[in-house]
Amino acid sequence: MPDDAGARRRNGIGLGILLALVCAAALLIALPDDDREGGGTCTARTFTSWAAEKPLTDEFARYGDDASRNDDWTGGDGTHSVRLPDGRLLWLFSDTYLGQVYAPPNPVGESYAWRDVSTPLVRNSAVVMSESGRLESTLAAPVFPDPAPQQWRWPVAARVEPRSPGSSEQVVRVLLWTRTAGQAPWIYGVPTATEVATLSLPDLRVEGITTILDQRSVEDPARRVLFGTTAVDEGDWTYVFGGDDAQATSQPASKAYVARVPRGGLADPGAWEYWDGERWTVRAAPRPVLGDGQLTGVGSAFSVVRDDGTYVLFTMATGAAGLTTVTSYWACSPTGPWHGPTRSFSPELPQGEVAAYNPQVHAELSDDDRVVLSYDVNWLDATGTSAQANLSRNVSLYRPRFVTLRLGSAR
Q1: Residue 317's closest CA among 45, 20, 53, 10?
Q2: Which among 280, 270, 271, 242 is positioned nearest to 258, based on CA atoms?
Q3: Is residue 147 within 8 Å of residue 179, measured between CB atoms?
């Protein structure tokens, strides 16, 4: 489940005062910047307000609490979405609970719907929402099979593309993160490879999976880069962002990277180009575009949207604030330079020792006036038996929440 390590365990460093100073300085120096991709200019952008998107949050609660089936989605993280040609919305999740949910009271007398503590996790799932916004069905899970023993796949960004260049037939391409079981600090798996799956339309059947970037030859797992946490279409290109796993070690932040693919070419490894710090190259030696590993940087899952010519990035804040606080950066180009962090906000969280992570923009639900963003919620210590018990006795803890953001000038 794509995650910010700080949302999974208490390893953040208290940098609140320094972070506040950095934010203030960033706002003072946020000036129009040249766009490396086109020579244009843009202006500093961030969100100007935010509000809970309760109807969408409630729809996932309704679907997850429905006890009429025992093989559908009841909770998950790694929330991504893609609009299908027939108007349906496909929601993709990483580690997922399926099975029966029981009405309250739960075994300890609390007024929460609950699941049996022995309910297993599947490594990925997909849920179909109707064009009207009602969740209707769960695909047979896991959708993307494990590539090998002790390995698994987490789905991230997705696009509808032509089956081949110039084809009128469309398919869904889903970017996947492959991870391998490891020892501490790699308790959520060692980064292994970026892959792309092809799903048929309209039946959403997996036709094949292609390896895009194998990272096993990179000796230090903290320097391995997985792409696909977010993607932005602009002109003839799809820009695909990724991150390293530095947060799994002692660093309070990971670094962001970017690749690009001609639009419609996600499943072609030879079409991918990586930003090496100076130019785009087919040689897979990406260099970070954002992050110093301390005061600036990203969680291992973040999101980017283009607004009024400016790229705006949303991520969990660095340090201890990363357990509760979403912050933003802006740039005139996907390759940067990125400015910020600018403004931050702390979304609503349920009671208990919980944390937010994986802020994701859902362009399919956004428009010119608003941006819809989800964030995942989990128990702070998500690896122990107490975490399993807490997620089971209150099924609402391990589900996405949604907010609406209004974007505007950062000054």
Answers
A1: 20
A2: 242
A3: no
**Among 123, 9, 2, 17, which Cα is nearest to 355's?**
9
User: What is the per-residue pLDDT across 211-236, written as a single tens digit (0 to 9) for each?
Assistant: 999 999 999 999 999 999 999 999 99
Q: Is the pLDDT of residue 49 over 50?
A: yes
Name the residue with tokens 């690896």: 383
Architecture of domain 5-409: 5 Propeller (2.115)
Asked whether 310 and 45 are in contact (CB, 8 A), the reply is yes
3-state secondary structure 151-209: EEEEEEEEEEEECCCCCCCEEEEEEEEEEECCCCCCCCCEEEEEEEEEECCCCCCEEEE
Residue 308 has pLDDT above 80, yes or no: yes
Nearest in space to 88 (alpha carbons), one of 125, 55, 124, 133 = 133
Instruction: Give the H/E segment covering residue 90.
Output: strand 89-93
pLDDT at 10 over 80: no
Is 80 exceeded by the pLDDT of residue 151? yes
Domain map of the chain by residue range?
5-409
Are the beta carbons of 350 and 356 closer than 8 angstroms?
Answer: no
What's the CA gap between 132 and 123, in Å, rounded?
A: 28
Q: Is 377 helix (H, G, I), strand (E, B) or coil?
A: strand
CA nearest neighbour of 208 among 150, 257, 147, 291: 147
Distance CA 143, CA 360 (A): 21
Q: Which of 245, 324, 256, 357 is nearest to 14 (CA)?
A: 324
Taking the CA atoms of residue 344, residue 348, residue 354 and residue 357 in that order, the dihedral angle to the nearest 10 degrees is: -50
State residue 317 phi and psi, 5-degree precision.
Answer: -65, 165
Q: Cis omega before residue 142 (within 30°)? A: yes
d(CA 155, CA 43): 33
Q: Which residue has the higher pLDDT, 387 or 128?
A: 128
